[in-house]
Design a protein that fits this description.
10 strands, alpha+beta, Ribosomal Protein S8, Chain: A, domain 1, 10 helices
């Protein structure tokens, strides 16, 4: 975290903002979201230097009602915009039972679960939707890249059990996982991507030659396509942010304003009934799932969020692995900025 904060401060972020972004990026790595943590730092630094991010944004409300708001991120770091949006949604849910906040002129903010889980501490359910920062998905049956991975996340509090946390792209694999495979020199499994002739594409370094497959794959991908479209409309179009052809590929464009759209909702459980009873019911459901009969060869039934929690505990105690190619890139960032290398 300290290395990320130092790098962001070196390129102009105020100390407090740099600390907030660094903390969220480190949290992404701790939970195993390797495509959204420190691996993004070289790209962030490059975009800041090119003017693609506003390091001192005026994040402000442009529309507001009792339960809803639209937040203009002024092209600031997406982490700052969405943390503010989550805080607003929580306050509105405390007052009215539900809060929904859209962002416009935001940027990549890391894994969706970072923000969906923020309402948990307030006995609230969190929902998060986003338009991805590059289009890698065509309409079902098409070739034009008009949709992104458009993720969705949901976090539901429990009592004695861990919260249920779902964080998923609307494609078979998030593009961040493709980038992580490339950094590690690994191949992708068949079923993640296809080329423009419909053939499997497994080399992540050739990802620009192909397209991600929507949830459902080749058999039922129309379901993932439909979900990606709906999420894009909710997170992008509804809040006046980019969608479809308007989406900027920030992997290849360092200076254009992306006008990234996200949305977060907080649902106050107390507005629907007794909070303790709800949590006990969630606990009972989790235990029913976990203890239900398994098919041969299955050792454990997992509930959404449990794997990330185990990764977080493991990495908190044993450290976060960094691929050699990523370490070289981070060393280059440090040298360019005149700061100490990671681990020095």
């Amino acid at each position: 975290m300290a290395f990320i904060q130092q790098a962001l401060t070196a390129v102009g972020l105020p100390d407090t903002d740099a600390a907030e972004v660094a903390g969220l990026m480190a949290a992404a790595d701790l939970q195993g979201s390797d495509g959204h943590g420190v691996s993004r730092l070289p790209q962030y630094v490059r975009r800041i230097k090119a003017g693609g991010f506003n390091v001192r944004p005026n994040i402000h409300v442009v529309h507001e009602h009792a339960s809803t708001a639209v937040l203009n991120g002024d092209n600031g770091m997406g982490h700052l915009v969405m943390k503010r949006a989550a805080e607003m949604a929580i306050e509105k849910a405390r007052a009215t039972g539900i809060g929904w906040v859209n962002s416009q002129f935001s940027n990549h903010a890391g894994p969706a679960s970072l923000y969906a889980t923020m309402p948990l501490a307030h006995d609230m359910i969190g929902l998060y939707f986003a338009v991805g920062n590059a289009n890698h998905l065509p309409p079902w049956g098409g070739l034009d890249m008009l949709l992104s991975t458009n993720p969705i996340a949901a976090a539901i509090p429990a009592g004695d059990e861990r919260p249920i946390v779902l964080d998923m792209a609307t494609t078979v694999a998030a593009y961040g996982k493709v980038k992580t495979k490339a950094l590690r020199g690994e191949t992708m499994p068949q079923g993640w991507m296809i080329d423009r002739k419909g053939q499997p594409l497994t080399d992540p370094k050739r990802a620009d030659e192909g397209m991600l497959l929507p949830l459902g794959g080749m058999e039922a991908g129309y379901k993932g396509y439909g979900l990606a479209m709906i999420i894009g409309l909710l997170a992008g179009t509804l809040g006046g942010a980019a969608m479809g052809r308007e989406v900027i590929d920030f992997n290849h464009d360092d200076d254009s304003v992306t006008n990234t759209g996200q949305a977060i909702a907080a649902i106050n459980i107390a507005a629907f009934g007794d909070v303790a009873l709800f949590k006990r019911s969630v606990d009972a459901l989790v235990r029913d799932f976990r203890n239900s009969e398994r098919i041969p060869g299955v050792d454990r039934i997992w509930v959404p969020g449990e794997r990330s929690h185990e990764t977080r505990m493991k990495r908190t105690n044993g450290g976060i692995p960094v691929a050699p190619a990523l370490l070289r890139a981070l060393d280059q960032v440090a040298d360019d900025l005149g700061i100490s290398r990671l681990g020095d």
